[in-house]
Amino acid sequence: IAFSVYNGHTPQQTNVDSPQRIPSDNLAGELEATAILAGGDPFSPTLPVHPAALSAVQMISTWDLDPPGPIAGRRLTLAQWITAPDNPLTPRVIVNRVWQGHFGMGIAGNANNFGATGKKPTHPELLDWLASEFLRGGQSIKTLHRTIMRSETYRRDSLHNDPALLAQSDPNSESYAVFTPRRLTAEELRDAMLAVSGELNLELGGIPVRPEINLEVALQPRMVMGTFAEAWQPSARPRDRHRRTIYTLKLRGLRDPTLEVFNAPSPDLSTERRETSIVTPQVFALFNGQASSARALALAARVLGENPAASELAIERLFELALGRTATLFERTACLDHWTAMTRLHEKTQLRAAPYPSEVVREAVEENTGEKFMFTEPLEFVEHFVPDLRPDDVSPRVRGLADVGLAIFNSNEFAYVD
User: Fold this and answer.
1) Which of 91, 116, 254, 411 is the most exposed place for a label (fewest CB within 10 A)?
2) Helix 290-306, helix 311-323: angle, nearest 10
3) Are 285 and 262 in contact (CB under 8 A)?
4) What pLDDT is attached to residue 364?
5) What Cα–Cα distance (Å) separates residue 381 from each residue in 222, 231, 247, 359, 391?
6) Burial class (CB in 10 A: 0-12, 13-18, 19+), 183
7) Whether 151 contacts 72, CB under 8 Å
8) CA distance 49 to 47
9) Which residues contact residue 199 at a Cβ distance below 8 angstroms, ignoring those fewer than 6 apart?
């Protein structure tokens, strides 16, 4: 069944259960008029109106927003007006969003509000210049990213040579005299761990995928319109589960707890700027969570697969992949000691694989009678599920190195852009 948009006359229909098909004659039937609704009531139309921009908004551009006809071309006309070369608002909003993504704050304080009630830009000339460069660059987002990231402002150190003077002259950190460290977003943090472990699937496009999430959350009952929604069942193949987070399925009633604890916004609301909280559950998610432990194990297997015997080379490779630099003498010594201690601990530990359950038993209450009842929900994905690398698949030496990798994943240097 294909869902499409139809702009013609409303066709005659005698049976409400029959599918509505696009008529061959789009002039037959009733042409419903758009009108101002009294009190927002769809059954109380007042003055008829035709598609057009608000007069106050239309004044900012000389582009004619009136569509060519009463039916055809309305969406195209709106899109052309938004992207018109002489419409200054669109490029300013875009460059402000991109700037905010890199610096944690926009040049204009409210990314969703460029009106009179929004915060004024701290550097209006810079905002205008970036918008002009964006248009001159063919409205290329990649070119805009390069322009910002190659600038002296972005490449500045996070430490000032006179902190006292900086605190006195710029108490709100609006001058960009230093680069303010920015924590990776929840999606960036997940993608970074997958990239370091060598598991990230960079395939573009396609249908949403379901990564593994905390099993207790995945199997919790969810009420939807008086009935139960299915449990969260992850994609069967690792290459699907390890796609970029932008391609993961978003459900309003069931959110990934790891992403949620790192301030991923709710899909219910528009969020102009994410909060960056530092709370204890983040430690539990990153140090004790299944996702971070699995990525650390894959990272250790990748490193030791490249250097099976050399311990110091393995630590160096771990730092190169995770932090993009070589380890200092202190770090190398500390990591080798920790690796040795954890390996000895794992040698004394017997591991058994914990398979996914094939079904889950639900207990609920009948809405009308109040009676309790139980039912069993099958988990179909288990039949074809291919698990990630598990601790019982590798040697104690690999598991020991994974503990070192997990500590690096929890470091500020990995989690922050500094």
Assistant:
1) 116
2) 130
3) yes
4) 80
5) 19, 11, 19, 10, 22
6) buried
7) no
8) 6
9) 238, 242, 295, 298, 388
Provide mean pLDDT across the span 106-127: 89
Rounded-to-integer distance, Cα 113 and Cα 119, Å: 8
Whether 212 and 291 have beta carbons less than 8 Å apart is answered as yes
Per-residue tokens: 113: 């509000």
Tell me, what's the pLDDT at 75?
77
Are 239 and 201 a contacting pair, CB within 8 Å?
Answer: yes
Backbone angles phi, psi at 21, to 5 degrees: -105, 150
Long-range CB pairs of 327-335, under 8 A, 24+ apart, other chains included = 335/404
d(CA 27, CA 9): 6
Stated as kind and residue range, the H or E segment containing 359 is strand 359-365
Task: Please give, one letter per residue, the 3-state secondary structure of 165-194.
Answer: HHHHHCCCCCCCCCCCCEECCHHHHHHHHH
- Dump the DSSP string for 133-155: HHHHTTS-HHHHHHHHHTSTTTT
Angle at 414 between CA 264 and CA 408, to 5 degrees: 115
pLDDT of residue 122: 92
DSSP secondary structure code for residue 328 in this structure: P
**Three-state secondary-structure class, residue 101:** helix
Query: Read out DSSP for 364-399?
Result: EE-TTT--EEEEEEE-GGGGG------GGGS-HHHH
pLDDT above 90 as % of the chain: 50
Unique residue bearing structure tokens 């590798």? 394
Asked if residue 404 has pLDDT above 90, the reply is yes
Do the bridges between strand 45-48 and strand 35-37 make them parallel or antiparallel, or are there none, so unpaired? antiparallel
Q: How far is Cα 333 from Cα 150, in angstroms, rounded to an integer?
A: 36
- Residue percentage of the chain with pLDDT more than 70: 93
Q: How many CB atoms lie within 10 A of CB 177?
A: 16
* DSSP sequence for 246-293: GGB--BTTB--HHHHHTTPPPTTS--SS------HHHHHHHHS-HHHH
Tokens, residue 173: 């950190």
Q: Phi and psi at residue 25, in whole multiples of 5°?
A: -105, 100
Tallying the residues shown for the chain, one arrives at 418
Structure tokens at 396: 């104690």
Which pair of structure tokens corresponds to residue 213? 């999430």
DSSP-derived letter for residue 209 is B
Quote the tokens at residue 234. 């992850």
Alpha carbon distance 315, 326 (integer Å):
9
